[in-house]
Specification:
By secondary structure, the protein is an all-alpha fold. It contains 17 helices and no strands. The chain has one domain (3-273): Hypothetical protein af1432 (Orthogonal Bundle). It is 70% helix and 0% strand. Helix 5 (69-76) crosses helix 6 (78-96) and helix 9 crosses helix 10 (152-159).
Amino acid sequence: MSLDKYVAFAAKSFTLPDMCVRLRSTLDDPHSSAEDIGQLISADPSLTAKVLRLANSSLFRFPSQIETVAKAINVIGGEALYNLVVAETATTAFKHFTSDLIELDKHWYASVYCGMVAKSLAMRLNVRGAERFFVMGILQNLSELLVANKEPQRYQSYQKAGKDALPHVNQLAHFGFTFAHCSGIILENWHLPIGLYYPVSFMNDEAKYASDVDICVLALASRITLSQLEKESYANIELFTPEIANKVSLDMEVVSNSIEYAEQETAKIVALIH
């Protein structure tokens, strides 16, 4: 299957819940208020409970309890709340495209781990909307499930490939695209903001690194995740390629702190969302 056919299949088989669409529309409406956003989310008790659990988690580390959606909006902002709703929705998408060839819990853990590392790095760099990176880390490998679901034999051939090259290099060789690029196009078709889908689409495109720090942060988080969760194959992976190093001013102490943060908190966040 071509990239376009995978994207079309994703569009036909899964759409974002109406809540995501309505919330995005409300946030983009200059006449809407925090009260409008709060009423919209509060209309769904289950979603409200999940969002508040995340708002009170280590993702934000707010010193006192956030007990209402209204307070969450005031403390972390409407955009952050939207990203939490998208993150919660991701679990449904993951389950929808599940495949016997992929251990879903392991895949989900790795995705959340990448999101935690990416958010931590973004915060260290004072990148605007650092919580976006948590969502991007979760969703950047969504299409791997789709590929395994739709073309299991082709995916098995990819799985059997040697790990001398990085995963995205093998993906290009086997499919003609990377899972991140396919995921990014799916997110764009779901009408997610450009600040979410664009960095995902191009996180493996080194030609884009010089002009976009968001892409570099996500690429670095992906490399860190590989180095920590697939140590047998990628323990010695180069984290700061010249292209990333030229755009991202971080040292190994920051990387170590981000790894520690992800190691300590990923399982907790997985339990909250999954």
